[in-house]
Every structure is written in structure tokens, then in C-alpha cells.
Design brief:
Elements: E1 4-7, E2 10-13, E3 18-24, E4 33-39, E5 46-51, E6 58-60, E7 68-73, E8 78-83, E9 92-99, H1 102-106, E10 112-113, E11 117-122
Parallel strand pairs: 2-11
Antiparallel strand pairs: 1-3, 3-8, 4-5, 4-9, 5-6, 7-8, 9-10, 9-11
Length: 123
């Protein structure tokens, strides 16, 4: 059983940076693929970034490549999303997710989800 708690969201201006964190419970954190998803008002939830258990393989949605970086610290059971050069279109609720299968995680079919953290980017 895994519990996920996101933090680090807030209200910022375009061009600013934020770092989101996801603290996970459990003793097998390194065995899970982890990812970040987001949902903007009136839109479907979408994949943002993902990372395998040992952190070697990462994947990003095209619109955030070069701006966002996903990483993990397995010793601290923590997943991060560093977001730079934020744009108003990045405004959304960001969710942390975990699954035993990398492919399932990428597709949004995760066994575990956090409650989300709000990111708002003003013009």
C-alpha cells in the first residue's frame, strides 16, 4: 500500500519557477514507476512526466520538454518536478501517481494517486 502527498504548488507569474514534491509512504518506493499528471479547468487529465524506479529512464509531454525536470530520491521516498519558465497554460492541478508498471503509469492507469496540488500561473 502506497500513500502519496503532493506539495509545492502556488500562485506565480509567467517565467517563474516552482518545485513540486511528492512524499510517498512504504518501504518499496524504488520498485514503483512514478509520474506527474495535470488537469486544467474544463480539460482532461494529461500526462506531464514519468520516471522508472531506479530513475534512469524519463519521459515528458512535448510542451514541457526543456522546461520541466522529473527526478526522485529513493532514500527519502520523494518524487520531484522542477518547473521552470512557467506559462499560463501550465495552470492546473498537478497529481503525483505510482504504478508497478512503467507503461501503465504513462497511460494514466495508476494504482495510486495523490490528492493534487494547485499551480496557477498568471500572465
Amino acid at each position: 500500500q502506497v500513500q502519496l502527498v503532493e506539495s509545492g504548488g502556488g500562485l506565480v507569474q509567467a517565467g517563474d519557477s516552482l518545485r513540486l514534491s511528492c512524499l510517498a509512504s512504504g518501504r518499496t518506493f524504488s520498485l514503483y514507476a512514478m509520474g506527474w499528471f495535470r488537469q486544467a479547468p474544463g480539460k482532461e487529465r494529461e500526462f506531464v512526466a514519468g520516471i522508472r524506479g531506479v530513475g534512469i529512464t524519463t519521459a515528458y509531454e512535448d510542451s514541457v520538454k526543456g522546461r520541466f525536470t522529473i527526478s526522485r530520491d529513493n532514500a527519502r521516498n520523494t518524487l520531484y518536478l522542477q518547473m521552470n519558465s512557467l506559462k499560463p497554460e501550465d495552470t492546473a492541478v498537478y497529481y503525483c501517481a505510482a504504478d508497478e508498471r512503467f507503461a501503465s503509469m504513462l497511460n494514466g492507469e495508476n494504482d495510486y494517486w495523490g490528492q493534487g496540488t494547485q499551480v496557477t500561473v498568471s500572465s
